[in-house]
Amino acid sequence: MMTNTLSTSIQTLQNYVNGRWIDSTTTQWLEVENPSTGEVIGSVPISTAAEASDAIDAAHQAFQQWREVPATTRVQPLFELTQKLKAHEESIARLVSLENGKSLPDARAEVKRAVENCEVACGMPVLQQGDTLIGAASGIDGQVLRLPRGVYTMIAPFNFPAMVPFWFLPYALATGNTYVVKPSERVPLTMSYLAQLIADSDLPPGVFNLVNGSVDVATAFMDNPKTAGVSFVGTSRVAALVAQRCAANNKRFQAMGGAKNHLVVMPDAQLDQVIRNMITSCYGCAGQRCMASSAVVAVGDDTYRRVCAAFTEASKQVKVGDPLNPALANESMLMGPVISAKAKQFILGMIEQGIAEGATLAHDGRNAKVIGDHRGHFIGPVVFTDVKPGMAIHKTEIFGPVAIILKARSFDEAVNIINEHQYGNGASIYTQSGYWARRFKLEAQCGMIGINVGIPAPVAPLPFGGMKSSQFSAVKTQGRSTIHFFTEEKIVTERFWAGDE
Question: Model-level pTM?
Answer without folding.
Answer: 0.95
